Amino acid sequence: MYHKQKKCLRFVLFLLPFLTLIFCSNDSIEGEEPIQSANLPWQQFHIHFLSNDCKAKKILLVLVHGSPGSSSDFKTYLKNKELQDKFCIFVPDRFGYGESANKESLPSIFKQGNALAQIIETYINKESYTFEKAIFVGHSYGGPIAIVMSMAKIPTFPRKIQTILLSSPSDPDLEELHWYNHLANIQIFQWFLPKSWIFSNEEMFTLKFDLEQLTTKLGKCNLDLLSVHGENDQLVPLENVYYFTKRKLNIKHRFQILKGENHFIPWTSFAEIKSILLAEGSK
């Protein structure tokens, strides 16, 4: 039964744009800033992103979508007046998704995190921005990518960096592959699947090893992490929020559990997540 629920939840991921409209419409007052859509080069490819008006903003807020997903998942955040007033909001399409180069995937949290860090560096330099603080937020698979971004040695990044994990996997022992992952890895079945599904499945094959490697790297870092997780998350178990405490890593880690909520808290708990972002941005 549990495996069937996980399979259904994976399918619901593809309905996120509709969930955004349903759950966020009554909680978000739209600001007047236009939403910019642009591309930046990365190696021989490009990365697409959305952003608000970032002039005169002192805090950079980066929102990283899960697997699969796209920058459009966070449009409600981009358009919210309170968030617009507080942050320069940068929302990329991860490599292989949305309008970014999508002919092949990059199934590694380290390659994706470092690529996005370099893209943001290009963005900051291109626009001649200076930020006092950066907050990297990752939902689901985007969580560990946000951690990698926080660890990147980018000269133009502010010294004060915080990472917020939303429904994020952290514990490699909780990661396991299922029969449908192996089925979707067979080429004949991939003919019937959208590329985003194939890329998402490929990311699941490397995630356990990546999280093990991330734990080793975190042992040498001093990060500020906040985990926010739904109490009833059946796709990424709640136990993930206890992992950093259990391993006793040299990081500052806090967690907040949203009662009665599931994996889709960026949309079902928009008001709560918005309040968390505003509060953390004021520290």
UniProtKB/TrEMBL annotation:
Residues 60-183 form the AB hydrolase-1 domain. This is Alpha/beta hydrolase. The keyword Transmembrane does not apply. Residues 1-30 form the signal peptide. It comes from Leptospira montravelensis. PANTHER family: PUMMELIG, ISOFORM A, RE40534P-RELATED. SUPFAM superfamilies: alpha/beta-Hydrolases (SSF53474). One of its GO terms (molecular function) is hydrolase activity. Keywords: Hydrolase, Signal.
